[in-house]
Design goal:
3 domains, Maf protein, Alpha-Beta Plaits, alpha/beta, Molybdenum Cofactor Biosythetic Enzyme, Chain A, 6-stranded mixed sheet
Length: 406
């Protein structure tokens, strides 16, 4: 289904109101498999409105309007749409009573012009407004769907999620699967999956880059859920055969959630000692409800003194190799393991920038240490970006190394 979103209101055109509705609706439609092809904004002029309706009906299957459903004379969306579709406006007694009740609850008399909001195009369905007085309207005519929504974002969002999405989805089954990857760039991943993407005509497969990771979104539409799920399983297996090395979740989870679940399943405890990430890893991990079941502590050993005092690192080793080194990352992880007695520890040390670089240690150099009772090792990586970006990427890579270690 191809869609167009039409935002009605002079205030949007002149820039006095930020149009957040169009972004929200576009994102939500994308999630349920609707392709939005056009965003249109138009003033409250009824003739221009009618032009926009005519153009939209010629080029898409689904038209969604926001705004212009109020009680004033310049609220003309419903009237313009009804005229173009050749539909009479009919008073709906339920809506009339509903609007009167709204004002009664506020101990106010209903202004006479609010009765305008109780009129519907004949043959349409009304959408209840749980927050304001303007009902939404759902129209099906000549294989087109036209939806009219109120302009205030709170009213629109509530109505869209509770009533519009179910109405749109009832005509077809839409399944969306998100596979999460890390350690590979978007262009490289897309090239790896190129054959699968090009061969699949009934499914939409796309990659979406985020900082430090890339998601693969698979969207399937049809009328038979068993056929859809069977084909979806085949595609997931094909992707797994190509990219399993980089996949950390098939359920749209964060990398830290995956680590948490592994620790929980294995009944293990973890501790962190962070230098260049400054507690970010612990912060990300403790956002997970129930993290205390597996998380012992975090030591932010930023200074050399703290590394010596908190992790019992030999001062001579620290002086010989420097704080940003493979040797110190390893000693940090091993020292924390000995101090806490947990099952697995993780350390970070590096140069997040923008200062502190040397010829041997460039900005973005990060060492990640992992220690268990049976094994200990260090992973070296060099990252790009500003300070925040380097820290965020380092945290994601650290969690991924933990995932592999578990």
């Amino acid at each position: 289904m191809k869609a167009e979103i039409i935002s009605v209101g002079t205030e949007i055109i002149i820039g006095s109101t930020l149009n957040t509705n169009v972004q929200y609706i576009t994102q939500r439609l994308s999630e349920i498999g609707i392709d939005v092809l056009f965003h249109t904004s138009v003033t409250d002029d009824p003739e221009l409105l009618k032009d926009v309706v005519n153009i939209g009906l010629e080029r898409v299957d689904l038209l969604i309007f926001t705004g212009g459903l109020g009680p004033t004379e310049d609220d003309m969306t419903k009237e313009a749409v009804s005229e173009i579709l050749g539909l009479n406006l009919v008073l709906n007694s339920f809506l009339e009573a509903n609007i009167k009740e709204y004002f009664n609850k506020m101990n106010r008399s209903m202004p006479s012009n609010n009765i305008k909001q109780a009129y519907l195009p004949e043959g349409s369905k009304f959408l209840i407004n749980k927050i304001g007085t303007a009902p939404g309207i759902y129209i099906e005519k000549d294989n087109k769907v036209i939806i009219l929504l109120p302009g205030p974002p709170k009213e629109m969002i509530s109505m869209f999620n509770d009533q519009v999405v179910p109405l749109i989805k009832q005509n077809s089954i839409i399944k969306i699967k998100t596979i999460n990857t890390i350690g590979i760039g978007e262009s490289s991943l897309e090239m790896m999956l190129k054959d699968i993407i090009e061969e699949e005509k009934d499914f939409t497969i796309a990659t979406y880059a985020q900082e430090g990771k890339v998601d693969i979104k698979i969207m399937a539409k049809g009328n038979d859920i068993e056929v859809i799920e069977s084909n979806l399983d085949k595609i997931i297996k094909a992707i797994d055969n190509k990219a399993s090395k980089y996949i950390y979740s098939y359920d749209n989870e964060s990398i830290e959630e995956v680590v948490y679940k592994k620790l929980l399943e294995q009944n293990k405890k973890i501790a962190f000692c962070e230098s260049c990430t400054g507690g970010l890893i612990a912060s990300m991990f403790t956002r997970i409800p129930g993290a205390s079941k597996v998380f012992d502590r975090c030591i932010v050993s930023y200074s050399n003194r703290s590394k010596i005092e908190e992790l019992n690192i030999d001062e001579d080793i620290l002086s010989k190799y420097g704080a940003v080194s493979e040797e110190i990352a390893l000693e940090m992880a091993k020292g924390l393991l000995k101090k806490t007695g947990v099952d697995i520890t993780l350390s970070t040390t590096g140069i997040a920038g923008p200062t502190g670089k040397t010829r041997e240690n460039p900005i973005g150099l990060v060492y990640i240490g992992i220690a268990t009772k049976d094994n200990s090792y260090v992973v070296k990586t060099t990252l790009s970006g500003d300070r925040d970006s380097i820290q965020n990427k380092a945290a994601l890579i650290a969690f991924n190394e933990l995932r592999k270690a578990l």
